[in-house]
Recover the amino acids of this structure.
């Protein structure tokens, strides 16, 4: 269901009637989220926030309204799924004991294997403990997984004392100087049984004192995830959450928003049955995937470019008022920022009349993409000293720079001339006391 959003973004970006497109998109967004099990209240909060921001905020210069709108949607959706928190996946200390909890079938045993493989690949020495004594084949299942990834498994196939097994398993691996120990536990369905299960979790928790308890939740559980997470949390403090089977359902939104609402951090998501199908969960990356990676990335890049551009503009104003000196480094930054923003002619049409660049380096603005690339390569061959102080660039330096960048000496000179033109224009503006005057003169 969330998959539909990619198409909606595409359609929106290509639409002609902005206001109608905004309304259509918001409706589509609501439907998709609700169909994906995201809580209705969260959905209406989200759309209200988007609408408020549309009203109160203004798109940055040179950013199209449509793109700006999508960036707001991206922002607010990311907040819904956990915001800017990047999960801490490096163990805070060594050795590190992890206890996995969750209902039966949620994917604990598989996830134990996935985690073991994940950390093994990172160079940690990992051990697995099979502390599910209720499912007859549970021990064998974990042993199988351990074999696949070449990680040792501790278990006592004929013993039913789960807490004791967990304790002895952890102790054994600790004495053998393992870095990360992962304890797989039982989980049973059914009313009444759950009380017993939670009791066992509590005992196990106080016996093995894990450094972290991870709750494993099946994505298809939907909004019940909230309840489940809080109940488990009372038995043993849940440090983080792994949502499994994100591949099998389009309804992952429920589990994600519910656990996000409990304040728990989603660390990983499971995206398949295979042991390497585990991903570190990053809300922004997750949302950009929902909305269409390519589109989102280019919009975000553009907005970043615009911010950098505004910084340079400030510097140019300082140059004009005589407070700062123009360097090639400024030109370099300016070209980089401009490139991030997309085709030059399009940006220029959107810059307000008083923008420094829309007035001054006209020749520079006529530069094509190719030339910009060339100039950047040339500047990459300059030293910082040369970039900050272009007047020291003499004939021999020109030759060296040309050689280093694969350009001709004429091209290097052209760049230097460009710098001179910009510098002179800025000085001229300074003499005329302000841009407004120049703007009038030129019209
Ligand atoms: P446990 O009872 O909590 O230990 O759950 P299991 O690890 O035995 O997993 C139950 C089923 O879910 C198995 O068939 C797994 O292969 C499957 N499973 C686990 N994680 C994922 C996942 O991320 N994606 C998919 N598609 N299946 C998964
Ligand atoms: Mg299991």
């Amino acid at each position: 269901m969330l998959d539909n959003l990619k198409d909606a973004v595409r359609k929106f970006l290509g639409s002609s009637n902005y206001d109608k497109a905004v309304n259509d998109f918001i409706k589509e967004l609501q439907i998709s989220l609700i169909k994906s099990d995201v809580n209705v209240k969260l959905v209406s909060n989200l759309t209200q926030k988007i609408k408020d921001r549309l009203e109160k905020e203004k798109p940055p210069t040179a950013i199209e309204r449509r793109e700006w709108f999508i960036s707001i949607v991206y922002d607010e959706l990311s907040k819904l799924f956990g915001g800017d928190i990047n999960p801490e996946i490096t163990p805070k200390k060594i050795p590190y004991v992890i206890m996995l909890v969750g209902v039966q079938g949620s994917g604990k045993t598989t996830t134990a294997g996935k985690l073991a493989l994940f950390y093994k690949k990172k160079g940690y020495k990992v051990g697995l403990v099979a502390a599910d004594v209720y499912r007859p084949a549970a021990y064998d299942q974990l042993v199988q997984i351990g074999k696949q990834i070449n990680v040792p498994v501790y278990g006592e196939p004929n013993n039913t004392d789960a807490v004791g097994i967990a304790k002895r398993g952890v102790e054994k691996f600790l004495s053998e100087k393992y870095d990360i120990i992962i304890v797989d536990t039982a989980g049973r369905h059914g009313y009444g049984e759950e009380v017993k299960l939670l009791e066992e979790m509590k005992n196990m928790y106080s016996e093995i004192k894990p450094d972290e308890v991870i709750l494993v939740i099946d994505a298809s559980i939907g909004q019940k995830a909230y309840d489940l997470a809080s109940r488990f949390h009372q038995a043993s403090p849940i440090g983080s959450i792994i949502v499994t089977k994100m591949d099998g359902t389009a309804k992952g939104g429920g589990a994600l928003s519910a656990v996000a609402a409990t304040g728990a951090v989603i660390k990983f998501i499971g995206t398949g049955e295979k042991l390497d199908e585990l991903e570190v969960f990053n809300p922004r990356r997750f949302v950009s995937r929902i909305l269409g990676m390519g589109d989102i990335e280019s919009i975000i890049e553009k907005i970043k470019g615009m911010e950098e551009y505004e910084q340079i503009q400030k510097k140019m104003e300082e140059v004009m008022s005589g407070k700062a000196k123009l360097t090639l480094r400024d030109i370099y930054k300016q070209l980089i920022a401009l490139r991030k923003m997309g085709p030059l002619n399009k940006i220029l049409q959107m810059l307000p009349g008083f923008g420094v660049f829309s007035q001054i380096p006209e020749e520079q603005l006529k530069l094509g993409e190719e030339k910009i690339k060339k100039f950047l390569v040339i500047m990459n061959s300059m030293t910082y000293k040369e970039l900050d102080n272009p007047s020291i660039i003499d004939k021999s330096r020109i030759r060296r720079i040309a050689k280093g960048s694969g350009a001709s000496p004429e091209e290097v000179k052209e760049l230097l001339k460009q710098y001179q033109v910009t510098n002179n224009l800025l000085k001229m503006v300074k003499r005329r006391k302000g841009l407004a005057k120049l703007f009038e003169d030129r019209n």
